[in-house]
Amino acid sequence: MSTLTEKGIKIDLQTSQDDKEALSQIKEKSVIYDTKNLDLWYGNSHALKNINLEILENEVTAIIGPSGCGKSTYIKTLNRMVELVPGVSTSGSISYKNKNILDKSIKVEDLRTQVGMVFQKPNPFPKSIYENIVYGPRIHGIKKKAILDEIVEKSLRGAAIWDEVKDRLHQNAYGLSGGQQQRICIARCLAVEPDVILMDEPTSALDPISTLKIEELMKELKKQYTIIIVTHNMQQAARISDKTVFMLNGEVVEFSETDQLFSNPSDKRTEDYITGRFG
Ligand SMILES: Nc1ncnc2c1ncn2[C@@H]1O[C@H](COP(=O)(O)OP(=O)(O)OP(=O)(O)O)[C@@H](O)[C@H]1O
Ligand SMILES: [Mg+2]
């Protein structure tokens, strides 16, 4: 006897263990963000042009491309931060878990609980490390100290910084190094248990050791989260991502498996960019 999965794949119901594993992987990798015909204007300036992208769950998707091509603009559409810019208009759709988030009836607060963001410059609050982490959970109404303590430890461990800060949780986060502050920001993001983490050049201000720590962290995090990262560092994209998007002048030129994009790009403009011929 056979049946069809949600994705229309025909399977034999008497599946072996291997088949089951293969199937669970298919299931794991469903589309979380589906961008269709997205255009965005800052006033009259056409910053994103007919973007079509399907981003899969539990993958790391890297976005590369020269300065000004629209990487930050695109990533900020995914949590609707871009709408804070006066004069922005969009057309097309971005569905997140099958709901069009550009639809104004979608509550932005709900979306941002599910989609966290880490910025280029570490931006901890001028508060203690502990208060930075519990900020989001407190907004969500968690008051019990024991639970908050647990969230703090779990988030800091998740961001690979617990051992470095466990004895100074009540000191100001500003007293940490840049790389540590960035990991505090990642921990703050994890504390609200998002599904997606957007990162806009999260390591560009960091030294190679902190960068490596954050890269290792991303490999760990993708088991539980979907990560979309903008980076100017092509080696970084190659090291950490499953898929890579190459953008140019507001358009997606190429979107493929990372290995393929870097070893055998299908578009001449991608090849020129990754070989350093422009940009
Ligand atoms: N708030 C804004 N108002 C008007 N135009 C903007 C705004 N933000 C970005 N732009 C323009 O939109 C285009 C894309 O900018 P964006 O910041 O997305 O580029 P980017 O690829 O992230 O570049 P970089 O690598 O330098 O960070 C650029 O031409 C930029 O000048
Ligand atoms: Mg940018």
Shape: globular
Query: pLDDT average, as an integer?
Result: 90
CATH topology: the name is Rossmann fold
Number of DSSP helical runs: 11
CATH class: Alpha Beta
Bound molecules: adenosine-5'-triphosphate, magnesium ion
What is the total domain count?
1
Order of strands across the widest beta sheet? 8-9-10-5-11-12
Q: Structural class from helices and strands? A: alpha/beta
Q: Could you walk me through the main structural features you see in this protein, from its secondary elements to its overall organization?
A:
With 279 residues, the chain is α/β, with parallel strands linked by helices. It has a single domain, classed as P-loop containing nucleotide triphosphate hydrolases (Rossmann fold), CATH 3.40.50. It has helices at 17-28, 71-77, 108-114, 129-139, 145-158, 162-165, 178-190, 208-221, 234-240, 258-263, 268-274, and strands at 2-4, 10-12, 31-42, 45-56, 60-64, 88-96, 99-100, 115-118, 196-200, 226-230, 243-248, 251-257. Strands 8-9-10-5-11-12 form a six-stranded mixed beta sheet, with helices on both faces. A four-stranded antiparallel beta sheet has the order 4-3-6-7, with helices on one face. It has a two-stranded antiparallel sheet with strand order 1-2. β11 (243-248) and β12 (251-257) form a beta hairpin. α5 (145-158) packs across α7. The longest helix is centred in the middle third of the chain and has 14 residues, at 145-158. Magnesium ion is lined by residues 71-72, 200.
